[in-house]
Amino acid sequence: MTNLPRRTVLAGALAAPALMTRAADAAAPLKVGFVYVAPIGKAGWTYQHEQGRLALQAKLGDKVKTSYVANVSEGADSERVIRQMASDGNGLIFTTSFGFMNPTIKVAEAFPKVKFEHCTGYKRRVNVATYSARFYEGRFLAGLVAGHMSKKGVIGYVAAFPIPEVVQGINATLLGARRANPNIKIKVVWTSAWFDPGKDREAADTLISQGADVLMNHTDSPTTVQVGEEKGVWTTGYDSDMSPYGPKTCLTSTMMIWDQYYIKRAGMVLDGTWKSTDTWGGVDSGMIKMAPLNKAVPAAVAKELEIATNAIAAGRYKPFVGPVVNQAGKIAIAAGQALTDQQILSMNWFAQGVEGKL
Amino acid sequence: MADLVLILSILVATMRAATPLLFAGLGELVAERSGVLNLGVEGMMLVGAAVGFAAHAVTGSFVLGLLAAILAGAVMAALFALLTLRLLANQVATGLALTIFGVGLSALIGLPWAGVPATGLPAALWPGLAHDSPALQQVLLLLDPLVWLAFAAVVAVDRFLRRSRAGLTLRAVGESAEVAHALGTKVLRIRFLAVLFGGAMAGLAGADLSLAYTPMWVENMTAGRGWIALALVVFSTWKPWWLTAGALLFGFVTIAQFQAEAFGLSFSPDLLATLPYLATIVVLVLISRDATRLRLAAPAALGKPFRPSD
Are A327 and A354 spatial neighbours (Cβ–Cβ below 8 Å)? Predict the structure, then answer.
């Protein structure tokens, strides 16, 4: 305690009474903090979390007082920010990037009364819950649209790193696109960077020159959608509705909607029912939603998308269902079987039809 | 025909990828030829990118956007020059600080425009050129005026350094400030101008990214291209044409890697990404192994501060 900077100690001392009185005085608002990895901007991963925060504030009104710190780099700096938030009297803190995992756990152990929620991680404590979305369900649906819109049967995929989350997205895209065109191919290019707009551009140009007529990306910049717009090639967006970057050519986007989750979890803290849980929500919970379709998408395709969305939401259909053959020609998912969550989370193979190396 | 189009598209993509590296590299090359090592290229590029994007967003003019970026880069460089040339601060430390400062300053300037969708500099700024040939059309459609400007700048800088009296003076200052000073050359003024040119070119390189190549402003969007430009200057042994070769090679390696991947061949992207740095280390080892080569290549007074004796 003696090593703490003076300001932190003072803030902690001021915050302590507030924490103690909350139970007795229901009128004192619950302070909810959000830690963002990037600037909010106009679209993207962090933007979606900010929309969730605004929805939470609007819904619960006086009962909560939300705040955020944006553009926090992963690692030691994030620990400082999270610790500061905890000592500032926040009762619930959302840390919204994978790299905040260990700092969140560390601070949570020092602040047992504060509830923490870490997005996309796998480490939990009594006061640390985790949550993420089934991004691959959105990829499957985007793939379905892409498969219908591709004339040449080649989808180009600009991807950052071959981690399971990205691999799931590519396989799900292929399986979705196959519903429309059984012979569809996906060409994958690895940029080895989550954020390098220049490389995204080079990768997108390359895929176009090799015949891809629908582009998708799993990187953190809207560059791929912009290149599609410039060259007149279809694209699908990710994270947010990316149509502002490609008004004519962006077909749809996989959107991540955290609003309901944030409202629900804050409500649980308020009524004392909050518990450390692991949430993996998909289309069913509204965490994954497809952005409004481009006008160029035919009505029949829109109808098929709606049917598929409803089937996934109702649990009647799962994207990763066999038969699926991997690149080596071996059975990856047996006919009629669906992958378990554990198998999806550790996915390290490409389905046949994906051109790219892991 | 399909092959020709593919080859052309690789060529065009290579030239496009090399353009920001060329701008930044040329500027730094001139500064280093005058004897000043400015490691702040990345920071100056970022400030140029943010200011260029903002100026274009406000005025709607690409020309004003580019000019604002050039000016912003030059202002950053002037700050560096004040610290290192006038106050004799250590060039390496000041350059690193300039990059860190530039990262923060550009984020601050660009905040209102972060992630705002924009359309890039149109390639169709070539009046009178008919798009008859499909191959030619492809080139013209893909290359914007900044690409041609970058290659024109290579010719101009090369001629300036090798053929002009001012270029000779600049090189003399970079070889031995004391001798140049004794001959009556205004060493500090020349170095100041060279550093300013370096900053202006870095600002232009940044605006090339934020207005043409990937038309948007996002923090850290240069993604290390300033450092690659610095490496290329050493790799080129301070010669504009070798710098061009290095920038094209680096662009080509990236493009070729993506093309190969899309064809289904595999490379280690990590290894390829290290190539320019590896090449730089090799060049550094080679030129420092041999005293003659060292004298022929690196400006002898590079990084050494100079205080006029009277």
Answer: yes
Chain A residues with CB inside 8 Å of B21's CB? none
Tokens describing residue B71: 């000016």
Q: What contacts A315, CB < 8 A, 6 or more positions away?
A: A284
Say if residues A66 and A33 touch (Cβ distance below 8 Å).
yes
Among candidate residues A116, A91, A120, A92, the one with its CA nearest the CA of residue A106: A116
Residue in A214, A187, A164 with CA at minimum distance from that of residue A320: A164
Sorted by where each starts, the structural domains of chain A and their CATH numbers stand as 6-133 (3.40.50.2300), 136-256+287-355 (3.40.50.2300)
Query: Do A196 and A163 contact (CB within 8 A), yes or no?
Result: no
Mean pLDDT score, B171-188: 92
Instruction: Find the range with the poorest average confidence among A142-146, A341-345, B269-273.
Output: B269-273
Which residues is A60 bridged to in the sheet?
none
Structure-token pair, residue B225: 């291209």
Enumerate residues 6+ apart whose C-beta is below 8 A from B167. Answer: B159, B160, B161
Flag if B111 and A197 touch (Cβ within 8 Å).
Answer: no
Q: Mean pLDDT lowest for which of A160-164, A203-207, B5-9?
A: B5-9
Q: Which of residues 3-42 of B touch A (CB under 8 A)?
A: 5-6, 9-10, 13, 16-17, 20
Chain A / chain B CB contacts < 8 angstroms: 114
Burial of A6 from C-beta contacts in 10 A (0-12 / 13-18 / 19+): exposed
Region B136-163: mean pLDDT is 85
Nearest to B216 among A202, A222, A355 (CB): A222
Nearest to A90 by CA among A272, A273, A277, A266: A266
Residue B281 has pLDDT above 80, yes or no: no
Location of structure tokens 């819950």? A129
B72 neighbors B230 (Cβ within 8 angstroms): no
CA atoms within 13 A on the CB side of B296: 8
Statement: residue A12 has pLDDT above 70: no
What is chain B's alpha carbon radius of gyration, rounded to the nearest angstrom?
A: 20
Instruction: Give the mutation candidate from B11, B258, B270, B272 for the A interface (greatest A CB count, under 10 A).
Output: B258
Q: CB neighbours of A179 closer than 8 A, spacing ≥ 6?
A: A144, A147, A304, A308
List Cβ neighbours of A150 (8 Å cut-off, separation of 6 or more). Answer: A177, A181, A184, A213, A214, A234
User: What CA–CA distance (Å, rounded) separates B169 from B171?
Assistant: 5
d(CA A127, CA A313): 30
Which of A186, A196, A206 should be substituted to probe chain B, the one whose Cβ sees the most B Cβ atoms within 10 Å? A206
Residue in the block written with tokens 């004003």:
B64
**Cβ–Cβ < 8 Å for A133, A288:** yes
> Which residues lie across from A218 on neighbouring strands?
A159
Query: Does B216 reach chain A within 8 Å, measured CB to CB?
Result: yes
- Architecture label for domain B2-116+133-297: Orthogonal Bundle (1.10)
